[in-house]
Amino acid sequence: MASAQAQPNKTLRVGVYHSPPKLFFNEQHQMDGIFADLLNEVARQENWVLVPIPCELGTCIEGLKTGHVDIVPGLSAADVNMRRFSAHTLPALEDWVQIYARPGSTYKSILDLDQKRIATYLDSGLEKSLPAQLRFYGLHAELMPQDNAPAARLAVTENHADVAAVNSITGLQETAFHNLLPTAIVFDPVAQYFVAKQNQQADTLEIINSYLEAWQNAPEGESFYSEVIGKWNRVAPPKSLAVFWGSIALLGAFLGLSVYFITRLRNKVTEQNRQLLASEKRLSIILDTVDAHIFIKDHELRYIYANRKMCEFFGENTDSIQGKTDFDLAMPARTALDIQQTDLKVLELGERIAGEEQLYDRRHQTEATFFAVRMLLTAEEINEDKDGVCGIATDITEYKATREANHRLAFYDTLTKLPNRSSLLKRLAHTLEDIKRKPSCAAVLFIDLDNFKHINDA
């Protein structure tokens, strides 16, 4: 199924972190695991050259941002903010959190985790998702982070923890023959992808997506995808035959449970996605029809959202403006600096700041005046690591021009542009008020100009 548009001998630098059986380096120091098998097959058919780069998960993600790594396999929304990276559309793998316990334990629901010791492991995404689940149900538990999944399993085996929270794919290999059994407690389904830097490797991700779609839709006996998943679901038999057959039965039950939960989770995710897309579409229509500039920036003051009105003002679109700062937009550097200082004040003080701003309107080749309101948004509200800034700016250029025109009509002669009688009376009233507050002298000078009509006519 080689793509006709694939570039021959493309070189891809692949960030490889230790997360078996998803991705790791084997004893021969070669990239191995589910994602490695999938990517190696695509590379073989597309004549790509893969350069594995060993790194911790966080370092791999940072490598994407800096450009030292082209692609990182097996990432989900729990690992990175997908809006700031690029990924293919079809998930390469679906995973969820499974709670494992010692035989004889009676854990039937997540409520049974109250006041328990839960072993987790680093770089699993559980350090964020598990506390959120516990808070949602009002539960209190002691989290015991370990270096990796085997260490989390060992903590339960040696009675240092009551249960272990393990990603289902990792748990299948790590716990099947170590006297731990999967409980009925599962949560936090996640879809995992091959991920690249934002707006990079679009052709690579499209090709990977086409292979995944073909493999996942192929008949069971002809699917390379099923072959890879089956390969990594196999566990070497133990020495004891009784334990072996018991493990086989456990594995069969686990796989059956996996199919059930995958189907259930997919249906639930599909319905939630449908409702979310409908809600987002309604909100997008509302925001794009509002006669105001609406935007959201992250803690680095980079745009993560701007409505259509604002994009049109700067000659951008909703995709191109993302990741840019005000210095990247069509405005003077001095203006961008002033806006940045105001945004920083919002982030530092957490206060709502409102006031007028001057921006150059490139479409009408003139200065425009805006009344802008800026406020703080929490990290949770914008799905970021740190707080951000939300702003609404309304163009008041015409309003100010109308107000100034009305003022001129009221207090100045339309022909001579000189102050009229209303202006004189207003200034006299101000002078009298000043004299009342602070006793002083004032005088009115009256000059009678003969033949003033000649001046008007001139």
What does this structure look like?
42% of the residues lie in helices and 22% in strands. It has 5 domains: 11-92 and 192-234, D-Maltodextrin-Binding Protein, domain 2; 94-190, Periplasmic binding protein-like II (D-Maltodextrin-Binding Protein, domain 2), CATH 3.40.190; 249-286; 290-401, PAS domain (Beta-Lactamase, 2-Layer Sandwich), CATH 3.30.450.20; 419-457, no CATH class. It has helices spanning 34-46, 57-66, 126-136, 149-157, 168-174, 202-217, 224-233, 241-289, 308-314, 333-349, 379-382, 397-411, 421-437, 452-457; strands at 11-16, 24-25, 31-32, 49-54, 72-75, 85-87, 93-101, 117-121, 142-146, 163-167, 181-197, 293-297, 303-306, 353-361, 366-377, 388-395. The strands form 4 sheets. Strands 5, 6, 7, 8, 9, 10 and 11 form a 7-stranded mixed sheet that branches. A 5-stranded antiparallel sheet has the order 13-12-16-15-14, sandwiched between helices. It has a two-stranded parallel ribbon with strand order 1-4. Mean pLDDT is 81; it is low at 235-248. A hairpin with a 4-residue loop joins β14 and β15 (366-377).
What is the CA–CA distance across the termini? Answer: 87 Å
What summary fits the major beta sheet? 7 strands, mixed
Specify Rg, calculated over alpha carbons: 33 Å
What's the CATH topology name of the largest domain? D-Maltodextrin-Binding Protein, domain 2
Helix content: 40-55%
Q: Could you tell me the number of beta strands?
A: 16
Which architecture name of the largest domain does CATH use? Answer: 3-Layer(aba) Sandwich
CATH classification, class level of the largest domain: Alpha Beta
State the CATH superfamily name of the largest domain. Periplasmic binding protein-like II
In terms of per-residue confidence, which ranges show pLDDT below 50 for 5 or more consecutive residues?
235-248
Order of helices and strands: EEEHEHEEEEHEHEHEHHHEEHHEEHEHHH
Mean pLDDT: 81
Structural class: alpha+beta
Count of the separate structural domains:
5
Strand content: 15-25%
Transmembrane segments: 242-262
Pfam families: GGDEF, PAS_4, SBP_bac_3
Organism: Candidatus Paenalcaligenes intestinipullorum
Domain GGDEF: 440-458
